[in-house]
C-alpha cells in the first residue's frame, strides 16, 4: 500500500539472457519481482510460463524473421525451462494456450521499438500463430466495443457510371474487362471498401494522435504540409498490418519471374555450322584479336550491322528472342555478334494486355554466336505525332504493322527496375562505335 498505485506492469529480458523478468512501475520507481511467497507461488508459476514463452518467441523471431511456424515449434520444444519452475518442458499446447498473451506481448514489444525496425507481429510465423489460435488483436478494446450498435446502412442504387473515357480507353476496357464492368459484385465491393482500412476497435485505433512523431508533425492539423499521408506512429493498427502482410505475400507468390535473355543464354555455347555462315566483304577494322565486319550471309540471307534479328533460345518451347545487331566480329571464340535485346510487351507490367507485335527497348545486351540467329525481322519505330497531346478521343487506327510473323514496332523504352515506360533515347551510335 505504501508503494502507491501501479501505473503499469511489464516484462523484460529479451536480450538473450537466461531470465525473463516481470516488473511494474509506480510514481516512485520501477520494481522487479524476484521470488514469490509460498502462497503466491502457484499463481506466479503460471505467469512465468507465459513470460518465458514470450521471451523465446521474441528472441527467436528477432534474428529469424522468415522462419515457419514449424521452426518456432522446434525451437520451443527443444528449449529447456530454467530451474525452479514447476514444469520441465515447453509444448505446442502451452504455446496455443498462451497465444493471446504472447501476441499481446509481441505487440507491446513492437510499440517500444524504433520506427525503422520491422515489426515482429507481421512475420509469417506470427501470422500463422494468430490464425491457428484465433487470437484477437487489440482484445481489450474489442470486448469493450461489442455492445456498440451502428445504424443499418442503406445501399443506394449507384446508377450508371459517370466515368468519362476516351475512345481508346473504352476500346481497351470493353475488350478485356467487359464482364467485370457489367457484373455487380457487391461482396467484392464491400471487401474492397474495407481493404487497407483500420479495424477501428483495437486499442491502437482508439487512442489519439501523439502529435510528436514525424508523421504527426507532417499532418495539417499539427501545422505540417500534409504530404506524407502517414498515420501516427503510435496508431498503427496491428490488424491492418497483419492483413497487408498476408496480401503482399499472396501478390509476391503470384508474380512469375521473368528472366532476361541475357541470364538465360549467358555462358551457353552452340555448335557452329560454318557452312551456313559466311562473311561478306573484308573486315572494316581489326585490333589484332578481333576482325570486325559490316555484313554477313546466313542461310543465303544477308545481314548487316543495325539490322534486327530473331534469336533461337536453347529451349525450343520458348518463343524467339528479338534483338538488334550492333556489331559483328570473328575471334578465337568463333563468329560473334553483339545483341541489344528488345523486350516483348508480355514481359512487362502490361502482361497479356499488351500488343503482341509491340516491342520495348531495354538496357540489356550480350555477345552471342552468329549461329543463334534464326532470321531477319523488321522492327520499325513509331514516333508520336507532334500534336499527340491534343489527339485524345479521336478515332485512330490502332494497327501499327501487319502480322506476318516478321514485322514488329516499338514506341517506348522500358525501365525494368521501376516498371516504367519512357521515351526512347534519340541519339544513335556513330559510325565509329558500330564495331564496338
Automatic annotation (TrEMBL):
Superkingdom in the source lineage: Eukaryota
Residue ranges annotated for the CXXC-type domain, each copy included: 192-238
PROSITE patterns in UniProt: BAH, ZF_CXXC
One annotated Gene Ontology cellular component of this protein: nucleus
Principal place of residence: nucleus
Transmembrane portions of the chain: none
Pfam families in alphabetical order: BAH (PF01426), DNMT1-RFD (PF12047), zf-CXXC (PF02008)
One GO MF term attached to the UniProt entry: zinc ion binding
UniProt cross-references to PANTHER family, sorted A to Z: CYTOSINE-SPECIFIC METHYLTRANSFERASE (PTHR10629), DNA (CYTOSINE-5)-METHYLTRANSFERASE 1 (PTHR10629:SF52)
Protein name: DNMT1 methyltransferase
UniProt organism field: Phainopepla nitens
Gene: Dnmt1
